[in-house]
Amino acid sequence: MKYLIGIDIGTSGTKSVLFNTDSSVVRSSSAEYPLYQPQNGWAEQSPEDWWEATVTTLKAITEDIEAADIAGIGLSGQMHGLVMLDSENSVIRPAIIWCDGRTGAECVEITERIGAERLIELTANPALTGFTASKIMWVKNHEPQNYARCRKILLPKDYIRFRLSGTYAAEMSDAAGMQLLNVRERRWSDEVLDKLGIDRELLADVFEAPYISSYVSDEAAALTGLKAGTPIAGGAGDNAAAAVGTGTVVDGRAFTTIGTSGVVYAHTSQMLLDPGGRIHTFCSAVPGEWHVMGVTQSAGLSLRWFRDTFCEKEKKKAAELGCDPYDIMTSEAAKSPIGCSRLLYLPYLMGERTPHLDSNARGVFFGLSAVHDKKDMIRAVLEGVSFALNDSAGILRGIGAEISDMTICGGGAASPMWRRMLCDIFGCPVKITVSKEGAALGAAILAGVGVGIWPSVPKACAELVTYREPMSPDPTAGAEYAKYYKIYRSLYPALRESYAKLAEIK
């Protein structure tokens, strides 16, 4: 018996899954950890929390398993996070993660140093607060003592690779989100590094996603139950790994994921760019190919925030019934009509990427009146996130990405109501995979390709990834949503200046 492991280092927690080589789950284990917000708009986590969660979950899934039967390990993880190590490989400061919005001034600095057009030519994206480059520049500008101590910069999943193996390594899909990679040529950009004054030696060597980058160390083996010498593949950023786990690895295929953030992602064998920089172009987990994606920062985060802030009664009821609070919340939301009795929600709790690129944007309930109650507000959150995702889908189509096949994944995919809503708003059939493991499965598949179980990523996906019956859109519902979506799109432009003024208040 041979096994593969996929480890997904997420924002809410880490999940480790042991798979058979037919992609069936043998065991799965998750461990949560906190997100810290020292100031409004900031977001940090402790890399040690990620490592403790990794050790805990690996021990859980390898118990009573013959470690020698584990053929390989793949890694997936939240993108863009900044992990800084000193000369002793100790973490210098908490990791600044993807949804942190403190680096607006650094984005201006990066753009001025490199030039707006040249930056997109080299890195395929404009300077954004979420990307790693601006975080590095923020530390240089605001914590020079920490930057002076830094000897290595790693992304979240690559820090876990280091703890598992003692090896510094990065891979293309995740590295492309640092804004330090020449995305077309798939190598670190000397021009960007020189103009930003970042030493190339701070960065790990970068490999394609299925490449075997390292091997489990003796120390990590003793902690986790793994066998020393077990191969570790390059892996992928969370969305690129989810693409593998959903079979979105050939032209024409796309997926929407609703996790903490929300993403609309399309695979492309040709590099596509949005001159306006509203969507991202990154390297895909398929060697030599790319993907384009739009991101809304606070997708599932919006619903989680509402749950934790306003839904104690629903959480208590769920505990009594032994079900998920989200199931109770969405069943209540289903009692509210399309449009939520003329209530709209802008899901900008952590600023927004696509299409606004505005770290100052904040969440809004628009149209709130005494007629509304909790069910309307829950549905407004679901619809607002769906409208934000539709913004991304429209831009992807506009730059030439083929979207003829849409898969829904992430935590939000578990909600039939949310899937139906997306189907009607997108106006195209949607489906879900039989496996619910997404990024963890994608990471395991990459490991399987790396150790030679399958000859390529697309061939592995064709063999392993299966789908449930697709859902077809309802044109009548779609037309009703369109009325509200038109108003939704008008709200951000009307609020842009007010967001900026609000951000200036100390």
Structural overview:
The protein has 506 residues and is of the alpha/beta class. The chain is built from 18 helices and 23 strands. The longest helix has 30 residues, at 475-504. The model has no long low-confidence stretch (mean pLDDT 96).
Strand content: 15-25%
Low-confidence stretches: none
**What is the number of beta strands?**
23
Q: Give me the number of helical elements.
A: 18
Question: Overall pLDDT, averaged?
Answer: 96
Main pleated sheet: 6 strands, mixed
* Approximate helicity band: 40-55%
Give the strand line-up of the largest sheet: 18-19-17-16-22-23
Q: Please tell me what the overall shape is.
A: globular
Summarize the structure in short.
The protein is α/β, with parallel strands linked by helices. It is 40% helix and 19% strand.
Keywords:
about 500 residues; alpha/beta; five-stranded mixed β-sheet; 18 helices; globular
Q: What topology emerges from the helices and strands here?
A:
Blueprint lengths: L2 E7 L3 E8 L4 E8 L11 E2 L1 H16 L7 E8 L5 E3 L9 E2 L7 H11 L1 H8 L8 H11 L1 H6 L2 E3 L1 H10 L3 E3 H4 L5 E2 L4 E2 L1 H7 L8 E3 L4 E4 L2 H7 L6 E3 L2 E2 H8 L7 E6 L3 E7 L11 E4 L6 E7 L3 H11 L1 H10 L3 H9 L10 E3 L17 E3 L7 H25 L6 E5 L6 H11 L3 E2 L7 H12 L6 H8 L10 H30 L2
Parallel strand pairs: 1-5, 5-15, 9-12, 16-22, 22-23
Antiparallel strand pairs: 1-2, 2-3, 4-7, 6-8, 10-11, 13-14, 16-17, 17-19, 18-19, 20-21
